[in-house]
Amino acid sequence: MIGRLTIAGLGPGAAAQVTPEVSAALAAASDIFGYGPYITRVPARPGLTLHASDNREELARARAALALAAEGREIAIVSSGDPGVFAMAAAVFEALEDRPDWQALDIRVLPGITAMLAAAARAGAPLAHDFCAINLSDNLKPFALIARRIRAALAGDFVMAFYNPRSLSRPEGFARALAILREGAEPGRPVIFARAVGTPDERVETVPLAEARADMADMRTLVIVGSSTTRRVGRFVYTPRAVR
């Protein structure tokens, strides 16, 4: 019996931003795996088993889900935002490399609204021209690589979306990123702090780079740093479509 594994994105937080496709997959699942806070967003129902695990157990979570799918079960793994953006889809495919027998499983990835798109929509249109996304967590890569990528994005004049800017275990990383930004960007460049978009705790604030502070961000915050052409119009921030 061939099982199925669905890797689904729950969006940034609001139930209305979960796609109908993802909702149908969750309704059909016998078991759902995910990081504890994300699992709480899945309604309990008869016949459904929820498997919550810790934040840094992605590979173990992927292997456990694949093993149950191999038994013929209907399995889902959930991520916040989009599962392919700094989330569980890559962990599942990494787990597949070691188990060719699992590669015949029916595996599908269902997209969700990732944090930078939700944050950008609240702010206006800061991602309307070329942009990049950088994960500031140094759990899986050295900070030297993060610093090199920030400097490269500055040199290319990209709008930057920063995921995972600051946590209790990494209190200094975002401060170091801000220092790099101030080396290569003008002090008036807009910086958007979008926290918990789509939840009752939502807070969106835009300040000039010179006024941005590390303590304005935490792990629930998505930070967008404008390019040299990004500007404010009233309460909105946008990046013009054309560069002249």
Explain the layout of strands and helices.
Layout lengths: L3 E6 L10 H9 L2 E5 H4 L9 E5 L4 H13 L3 E6 L8 H10 L8 E5 L4 H9 E2 L5 E5 L7 H13 L3 E5 L9 H12 L5 E6 L7 E6 L12 E5 L5 E3 L2 E3 L6
Parallel strand pairs: 1-4, 1-5, 2-3, 2-4, 6-13, 7-8
Antiparallel strand pairs: 8-11, 9-10, 9-11, 12-13
Helix pairs in contact: 3-4, 6-7
What does this structure look like?
With 244 residues, the protein is an alpha/beta fold. The chain folds into 2 domains: 4-113, Cobalt-precorrin-4 Transmethylase, domain 1, CATH 3.40.1010; 116-238, Methyltransferase, Cobalt-precorrin-4 Transmethylase, Domain 2 (2-Layer Sandwich), CATH 3.30.950.10. Helix content is 29%, strand content 25%. β9 (190-195) and β10 (203-208) form a beta hairpin. The strands form 3 sheets. It has a 5-stranded parallel beta sheet with strand order 3-2-4-1-5, with helices on both faces. Strands 7-8-11-9-10 form a 5-stranded mixed beta sheet, with helices on both faces. Strands 6-13-12 form a 3-stranded mixed beta sheet. The protein is built from 7 helices and 13 strands. The protein has helices at 20-28, 36-39, 58-70, 88-97, 115-123, 143-155, 173-184; strands at residues 4-9, 31-35, 49-53, 74-79, 106-110, 124-125, 131-135, 159-163, 190-195, 203-208, 221-225, 231-233, 236-238. The termini are far apart.
Give a quick summary of the entry.
With 244 residues, the chain is of the alpha/beta class. Helices cover 29% and strands 25% of the residues.
